[in-house]
Amino acid sequence: MGAMITKRVGIFPAFRRGFGIAMISAAAGLLAGCVPMPRIARPAPAPRFDAIDFFTGHTEGQASLKVIFGKRHPVAVHGMGVMDSDGTLLLDQIVEEAGQPPKKRQWRIRETTPDHYAGTLSDATGGVTGVTRGDRLVLRFTMKGGFQAKQLLTLRPDGKAAHNVLIVRKFGITVAVLDETITWVGP
Q: Which pLDDT belongs to residue 118?
């Protein structure tokens, strides 16, 4: 959950104003290295990442966002998660992205079967799915504009923080990467 790419990903005027598929395909080889990937540790069997437990209460995220052709800039996310009566986590977030007004966002996530999640995100055009394997939670969803998002959250051994890497792709090209530390602050 943590910081998602907010308005910036939805504002790729170059993609929407005729930066055609042919141009993107031709440039794909050159662009592959434009958005560097942070190191993502391999999943470990313990501690188990329980998204509902981790995001219930107050969380703070500090991130850096790199959008293709742009400079890396900071993003802060302030979250408050509460459990609904039906077992759904309602996570309200305020996303502060450099140069943008603060934005409100809401997640609604529920564990459907052990280690499998489904829900919604106000920034997504469809549903959100998630799978936990040990200390790793992988979320997938489609953002406005047809951007495919994959989020890899790795719980730290103390269970009070997680490393979050969000990878956003369009036409198979990585167009943005967010690298974040999310800290559980308390109830």
A: 97
CA 141-78-147 angle, to 5 degrees, is 20
d(CA 85, CA 83): 7
The two tokens of residue 72 are 């890396």
- Show the CA angle centred on residue 54, arms to residues 114 and 40, nearest 5°: 85
Contacts of 4 (CB under 8 A, 6+ apart): 95, 105, 121, 123, 143, 149, 151, 166, 178
Which pTM value belongs to this model? 0.77
CA distance 102 to 69: 23
Per-residue pLDDT tens for 32-61? 445 666 666 666 666 889 999 999 999 999
Strand, helix or coil for residue 55:
helix
* Contact call for residues 158 and 47 (beta carbons, < 8 A): no
61 and 180 Cβ atoms separated by less than 8 Å: yes
Q: Token digits for 112?
A: 């459907």
Q: How far is CA 145 from the centre of its chain?
A: 16
